[in-house]
Amino acid sequence: MSWRWYWLLLLGGLVLWLGCAREGFRGGEASIGQFDLPPNTYVIHVSRSGVLAYRPLRESEPGSKGGCAGFACTLFRSPSPGGELKPVSVFEQVNHVFATSSFPFVWARKPGEKNFALYFTRDAGKTWELVPGTAGEFACPPWLVVTDPTEPQRAYIFSTPGSEALAYLADLGEFLSLKDYLETQDGGKHWQVKSLPGQVPAGADGLLFDPRNAKRLWVWRGSMGGTWTGVQESEDGGITWKKLNVPAENRIFGLAYNPDTDELVAVGRNVFSSWRQGIGEDLRAKGGLEKQEFYAGAPYAQPWFDPARRAILVPVLCYPEGDQRRLILFSFRQGEVERLAELSLDKEPIYTGCSEGHLYVATTGPHGGKLYLLSLPRGS
């Protein structure tokens, strides 16, 4: 298995994370329940519509030889957490699962069809819709899917050269053109061809749009090597880029934006920083993290904008001692950091998500995993 698929499996589905653990939450949040998962099952989406997951095919199983870079999988869904996960029969072959932060995308082929295509679901895998104009005979998708942590109904699809699946934007290894990309603002009901005059710098790990100004966008890079690291901003649709002096002693894994307050939060390995009113600030001391080893952002999860609190929520995974892991959820708004919840875990989460006021976390393993559900109070 290549390194990119290791990270993809660890990501499960990008998105927005937090959960509950066997010790429960501190701070009064009520756990709804916890449920067993079958062995080697990776949850990628949980909502009121149900649970969507996948299991990688073993080399001996039909379809594994026709996978993308050695990866193919079977999709499973359940109409509710705790229900039986049953195979999704819509597809004959699924070769790529995109780690997105909202509605899931897959590169798959239906029975009787020659070509693969991009498909997405708005109801946890009950029904699937085709992204128009994406069909092709390649085993790997020549597309990059970028979803919006600020507006979950928005997504962007970019054409990439060649036929090699990208677990990260940085895998492209060259500039990404911003001309003629697809955009949806309503969860895939309608798609429009959009175009910007510039391009994404080579080696960028991620891309984030300002939802109120398409010509303003940010990229980040935390990967080792290359010609640059940190955060860059463009205000002219990618023609020119400038570096933002966001404090980051180690690798940046993700970025989130608050459109209400015009604030950015950058997270990563021992990175919890902000960019506000033209000034970068290290937030570790405000969060009590200055003396701890921690991770935030990919490969675990990305921060996201919470419309209920009008704040950016930042999940952080700490390693205080031994094999124990401590998960802390922070809220950031107008320069202030608030610790919302804390829990203990004995495994690293492979999926965390938020939907309709509920928070979820899933783990996996060769002997099975767990799906935890909890409810948080509404934001003020």
Summary?
The chain is built from one helix and 31 strands.
Could you explain how this protein is built, in words?
By secondary structure, this protein is an all-beta fold. The chain has one domain (3-375): Methylamine Dehydrogenase, Chain H (7 Propeller). 2% of the residues lie in helices and 43% in strands. The protein has 1 helix and 31 strands. The strands form 8 sheets. Strands 24, 25, 26, 27 and 28 form a 5-stranded antiparallel beta sheet that branches. The protein has a 4-stranded antiparallel beta sheet with strand order 1-31-30-29, with no helix packed on it. The longest helix has 9 residues, at 3-11.
Number of separate strands:
31
The radius of gyration is 20 Å
Structural class: mainly beta
Largest sheet: 5 strands, antiparallel
- Report the mean per-residue pLDDT as an integer: 84
Number of domains: 1
Question: Could you tell me how far the N terminus lies from the C terminus, measured between alpha carbons in angstroms?
Answer: 46 Å
Task: Indicate the percent of residues in helices.
Answer: under 10%
Low-confidence sequence ranges: 1-30
Please identify the top-level CATH class: Mainly Beta
**What would the principal axes of the Cα set say about the shape?**
globular
Strand content: 35-45%
* CATH architecture designation: 7 Propeller
CATH topology: Methylamine Dehydrogenase, Chain H
The helix count comes to: 1
